[in-house]
Amino acid sequence: MDIPSEESVKKVIGHQFPGGEYLIAHWENFLLTECTGAQALPDGMAHPVALFHVPFLGANTSIGEMFELGQASSEFSIGIESYEWEFYKPLMEEELYQISGSILEVERIDNEDGLFDRIKFQFDIRQDRQDIARSTIIWHYNRGRYDRS
Question: I want to staple 118 with a disulfide (CB 3.0 to 4.6 A). Which of 45, 60, 98, 107 is the partner?
Answer without folding.
Answer: 107
